[in-house]
Amino acid sequence: MKAYVFPGQGAQFPGMGKDLYENFEKAKILFESANNILSFRITDIMFEGTAEELKQTNVTQPAIFLHSVILALNTEDFKPDMVAGHSLGEFSALVANRALSFEDGLKLVAARANAMQKACEANPSTMAAILGLDDKVVEDVCAGIDEVVVPANYNCPGQLVISGSNKGIEIACEKMKEAGARRALSLPVGGAFHSPLMEPARKELEDAIMNTNFALPICPVYQNVTALPATDVDEIKLNLIAQLTAPVKWTQSVQKMVGDGATEFIECGPGKVLQGLAKKIHREAEVRSI
User: Fold this and answer.
1) Confidence class for position 261, pLDDT limits 50, 70, 90
2) Pick the CATH number of 2-121+196-289 from 3.40.366.10, 3.40.50.620, 3.90.1310.10, 3.40.50.150
3) pTM of the model
4) Distances (CA, A) of 30 to 51, 102, 212, 268
């Protein structure tokens, strides 16, 4: 069974999507449609912009979404048995499995990115990657800190990203090293994604999601919040809303997909991060990119 997986923020690179635009008419039409929907030429930043320009949340998220979705929609034999996306990638997955239209998916991603940008500016915060500790140890260290600091991304065994206030992350990194972490590094991100500090963004996104039309998907989406397959439209919406302030259960999602029969993980989007994670979670997994 084929599981198509879609990357999140951090997978972007200068020049992303340019070959698609130049070589496929269908891709070019979708990119130009995106420029109109967003009211700025995101293709100029994607194709010719610097890494710094691409790093702005309100550019990064729609850029990765566009690259991922246009790749999927441009693949003739695209027949997923199941889909999943890491954080932002969940929106790409929902367009790929037809729960969302391309236009509505892009509008929601833009609304999400703008809401998160505002939340980041209102409350300076950050994230850090903790390597070489069991999840339980990381959870216990976070729970013992008075500042806001929580597990945010369960990426693979021995790799958990935490999220919180600047001070909370600083304290946590020290305590993680004391607990035996191989590394504890602050990440160059704009804020504490997947933490309670994203609550203002969650409220804003909730209105946008509830006012968007979702269709019955062609295959299950394994959602970040539950790590379980979903096809019910109301359930999908509620999990999407909860995702902004809840951890991404990626390890658990891949394990569940394997348990449900996934034999091949196909990464759809920029980079190869999810292929690497799939191999670390399930060594026998077949992985490739579109």
Assistant:
1) very high
2) 3.40.366.10
3) 0.96
4) 23, 9, 20, 16
